[in-house]
Amino acid sequence: MSSIKVSMFGKFDIVVDGQSVLTFLGKSPKSTQLLKYLILNQNKAAQVVELIDIFWTESDQSSNPESALKTMISRIRTNLSKAHPIFKNCILAENRGYRWNPDLPCEVDVFVFEELVQSLQSVTELTPESRTAFNQVLDLYGGDLSYASIEEEWTVGRSLYLHHLYTQTVYHYIDLLKKTGEHELIIHICRLALDIDIFDDRLNLELMQALRDTGQNTAALLQYRHVTSAYYKYLGTEPSEEILGFYKSLIKTGLASEADIQTIRQELVRTQDQEEGAFVCDYSVFKDIYQLQMRNIERQQQKMFLALFTVTSPLGAEHLPPLRLDAVMRELLRILQSSLRKGDTIARYSATQYAILLPMMSYSDGNIVLNRIKRLFYQAFSDNSVTLNFHFGGLDDGVL
User: Fold this and answer.
1) Closest Cα to residue 120, out of 98, 141, 142, 137?
2) Can you tell me the distance from the alpha carbon of 302 to that of 304, in angstroms, rounded to the nearest whole number?
3) Confidence (pTM)
4) Regarding beta strands 304-312 and 353-359, do their DSSP bridges make them parallel or antiparallel, or are they unpaired?
5) Are 223 and 239 in contact (CB under 8 A)?
6) How many CB atoms lie within 10 A of CB 17?
7) Cβ atoms 12, 112 nearer than 8 A
8) Are residues 194 and 135 in the same domain?
9) Domain housing 157
């Protein structure tokens, strides 16, 4: 016996006997959107006034939308019936509205997903049955309910709700896998879920921690750099404190294993910085370098200066698109690194700022160097689309 399978996650499709029938709907996006709405809301009849309000804009009102809706429903029925006789009574006229026939042998991935999520909420330990259900949730959720045009904005609320159910279920699965020490499976699940939402802080942290716990420190570091770069590049902001703090914990883990002095010496030589110019690091490491430098400088009765460069738009920082900001910040970093000494340290402090430690430099020399950097920046961006400002002063005299 034939049955209908409807996919809503990621991409909309209707399949009968292994064949998609969407091509029979023709090239009308509104017909497809209307059909999606009726299937997803099949628990009750959608009133005519409700459907007109959603799918007919004000510019369409003069064209008798009620008649147009009736014609469109009739056309959907006819076209789907041409695809397969199972669709003969697929849309019912009911209570001054229309409804997808709930008696059809039809499986909708969203409804299966919701039932599985509901059944898993009370699970406290993994069994073969619960593992199967968790994996089904992962397989079913191939992406958010997306909308292709303003006529499909009705999907946004439902999409956010389903996305929340998905992430909470993934978190639940990960928590149970932690109890059984299945770190490799956690890595696999996190990678799958991050394909859906690359900016999920907890998933990124869980992935990095699982990589670290399985001894894959290099992979954990690569993931850290990938996610921090994505935040700066696409969102124009920095990741959470937890993600930024992971870098420091990763370093501690990497240095925690026992080794003799010869092994350590060889590793230090192998990783010796071969790049010219200032040292670039994460801000968590920057703070440790500051502590170390301050101790040395106090002992030698020297001074240390701090500089903070800030990039903005003449119209305000919010007017710099993330991709444009990323390109500007990368160029500024190149200028900073090539213009400063090897003993100087650079760290990205925020989406629009770099902090710089300048040990054993006079105030006048520092101003000369930093103004030169500013001139080089404006040579690179001579179109006045961005501005660069800096604050500079001694760390012990409150000049900043």
Assistant:
1) 137
2) 7
3) 0.75
4) antiparallel
5) no
6) 11
7) no
8) yes
9) 109-255
CA proximity to 103, closest of 92, 114, 111: 92
Give the chain's count of helices (H) and strands (E).
14, 12
- 140 with 93, same domain: the answer is no
Residue 35 to residue 75: CA distance in whole angstroms? 11
Residue 294 half-sphere exposure toward CB, CA atoms < 13 A: 11
- Beta strands in 34-187, from DSSP E residues, in sequence order: 46-47, 91-93, 97-100, 106-108
User: What does each of the 400 residues of the chain score in pLDDT, given as a tens digit?
Assistant: 789 999 999 888 999 998 999 889 877 788 888 999 999 999 899 999 999 988 887 666 557 888 999 999 999 999 999 999 999 899 999 888 999 999 999 999 999 999 999 999 999 999 999 999 999 999 999 888 865 544 567 888 889 999 999 999 999 999 999 999 999 999 999 999 999 999 999 999 999 999 999 989 889 988 998 998 888 888 878 888 898 888 878 777 665 555 555 655 665 555 555 567 889 988 878 888 888 887 776 666 677 889 999 999 887 656 788 888 889 999 999 999 999 988 899 999 988 999 999 987 788 888 999 999 999 999 999 888 899 999 998 876 544 4
CATH number at 78 reads: 1.10.10.10
Start-to-end CA distance of the chain, whole Å, equals: 78
Q: Identify the residue whose tokens are 């898993």.
A: 120
Counting the structural domains of the chain, the total is 3
Write the CATH number for 230: 1.25.40.10
116 and 180 share a domain? yes
- Single out the residue of 176, 6, 194, 237 nearest to residue 107, CA to CA: 6
Q: Which amino acid is at 168?
A: Q
Dist. CA 350–CA 393, nearest whole Å = 19
- Which two tokens mark 396? 């012990």
Q: Is 334 contained in some domain?
A: yes
Cβ pair 228, 241 in contact under 8 A: no
Task: Tell me if 266 is assigned to some domain.
Answer: no
Q: Could you tell me if residue 289 is inside a domain? A: yes
Q: How far is CA 357 from CA 232, 341, 361, in A?
A: 22, 11, 10
Do 239 and 303 lie in one domain? The reply is no
CB atoms within 10 A of CB 353: 19
Structure tokens at 61: 């009102």
Which tokens go with 123?
Answer: 């699970």
